[in-house]
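User: I'm writing a tutorial on reading structure tokens. Could you give me a worked example: one chain, its sequence, then its tokens, then a sentence or two explaining what the tokens reveal?
Assistant: Sure. Here is the example chain.
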Amino acid sequence: MWINEGKLEGKFVILEPLRIEHVPRLKSAVQDGEPWKLWFATVPSPENMGAYVEYAIEAGKARNIAYAVRSKLTGEIVGTTRYYNVDEHNRRAMIGYTWYSASAQRTPVNTECKLLLLSNLFESHDAIAVEFRTHFFNQRSRSAIERLGAKLDGILRHHQIMPDGSLRDTAVYSIVAAEWPAVKNNLLSKLN
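And here are its predicted structure tokens:
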């Protein structure tokens, strides 16, 4: 694969390639805040965590790299994130499937995770663009993506069928290589 699977480490977090051994700690993490109950999010419940991790690992054999997010402050696993739809030919990838325990939200965790993932893509793999997608009604996620410096590309209307049968409109954002230096400075300033 174009992107090498490996641990990414910063000051606040370690992104560890996702393994089945992470399941018990991810079950604990997801119980903090119960994000699987949000109708507009696709976060696994504790009961579905094993299948979620198995699927992420299996998908990783194709065009995905999933990570468990470990807080360096507590040593605990606090969520997951991944590269997906990795497109080597066009040097692009999506970043998503990101969720965190409630105690990790509004901390440096997400900012540094995105800094590590984006630095890896733009600086180590010469990416042209990175894409983010979220539910149109997931305002918290949309605000977080916009705070990174991503630009709204548009809305894919009736893009997906949600588990409850509702139709999801998907907000699509991107960061292109020319924007990366400014985005990086923005993220570094937030961490300082």
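What the tokens reveal: The mean pLDDT is 94. The domain at 8-191 is CATH 3.40.630.30 (Aminopeptidase).
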